[in-house]
Amino acid sequence: MIKISFNTLRETLKLKLLKYGFEESEAGLCSKILSENNLYGVASHGTNRFCSFISLIKSGHIVVKTKPVLFKSFGAWEQWDAQKGPGPLNAWTATDRAINLSKENGIGVVTLKNSNHWMRAGTYGWKAAEEGFIMIAWTNAFPMMPPWGSKQAVLGNNPITFAVPRKTGPVVLDMALSQYSYGQLSNYRRENKPLPYAGGYDLYGNLTTDAGEIYESKRTLPIGYWKGSGLAIMIDLVSTILSGGNSTLDIGMSEHDTAMSQVFIVFDPSKTNTAESINAIANSIIDSVKSSEPAEQSEIVLYPGERALNRKNEYLKSGIPVDETVWERILKL
């Protein structure tokens, strides 16, 4: 690993995006989003995915020059077509629009069809919460997880984020519906490290902590076993129906995870609460969680988003860890 400052990382990625057809402002925003993924400790959806992001641009699966367009409106709910544009920019636009709709109506819902990988779900939760809004957002994805009781990967791991504003740091849950995202599995496989807990099955149907074996079997483990499997199915159903876009089944007809369906729901809590009361409620609940007795003396009880916030503060001071081989590949683009 090498350490790189946030500004160096962002500017390097921006220059590469400009080279591949992004406009100045869009290259700036996209490089910011990708660099912040590393800053929050999610390199799997930042530098580690950047070269494949460029490959999808070169192959035409991501269309740099297109932008989301509104095609139906139902008051507080709007349907947009992302036209296969860059996923992070599509999701940022959808989040902004959902926020504005919630300001008008108390709730704002934006559904996107034909979008691409939005990278880190939490990006959009953090954005909404830092602006004082509550958010729930999710996406369907390429089939990479078997439903409970099956060994064939027909479900996406369908990442979801929940976010709540809080003055000392938003509470943001960002998770895939598999025990580990494929990005995390890729990190463990690259570093040849065992997973902390079983994350899927080997070719013989045994639970394993070997990320390489899970890649080979293509049998990731749903969170909560059958419950995670059921939730993945429901997210795919709701995403597809509300957006008018592709299901995981449709996405699987391609070789790549493109043209996804996504849902962004934003609430404006100021319609019923003051900023002070919202913060007091959040602090009361989080303080209760943090004061609970750890199961082991070495354990630290964390709230959703706390680890990410700690990493951000640490990496801003010490530099962001980046895989040296990955960095060399980026510089050669």
Report on the structure:
The protein has 333 residues and is α+β, with helices and mostly antiparallel strands. The protein contains twelve helices and eleven strands. The strands form three sheets. The protein has a seven-stranded mixed sheet with strand order 2-3-4-10-5-6-7, sandwiched between helices. The radius of gyration is 20 Å and the shape is globular. The two termini are 20 Å apart.
Secondary-structure blueprint:
Elements: E1 2-4, H1 6-19, H2 24-39, H3 47-59, E2 69-74, E3 77-81, H4 87-105, E4 107-115, H5 122-130, E5 134-139, E6 160-164, E7 171-175, H6 182-191, E8 200-201, E9 207-208, H7 211-217, H8 226-243, H9 248-251, E10 260-267, H10 275-290, H11 306-318, E11 320-322, H12 324-331
Parallel strand pairs: 3-4
Antiparallel strand pairs: 1-11, 2-3, 4-10, 5-6, 5-10, 6-7, 8-9
Helix pairs in contact: 1-2, 3-12, 6-7
Uncertain regions spanning at least 5 consecutive residues: none
Number of domains: 2
The CATH architecture assignment of the largest domain turns out to be 2-Layer Sandwich
Span from first to last CA?
20 Å
Tell me the number of helical segments per DSSP (H or I, 4 or more residues long): 12
Report the C-alpha radius of gyration, rounded: 20 Å
Question: Using DSSP, what is the number of strands?
Answer: 11
Tell me about the biggest sheet?
7 strands, mixed
Mean of residue pLDDT? 96
CATH class of the largest domain: Alpha Beta
Shape label: globular
Q: What is the percent of helical residues?
A: 40-55%
Strand proportion, as a percent range, falls in: 15-25%
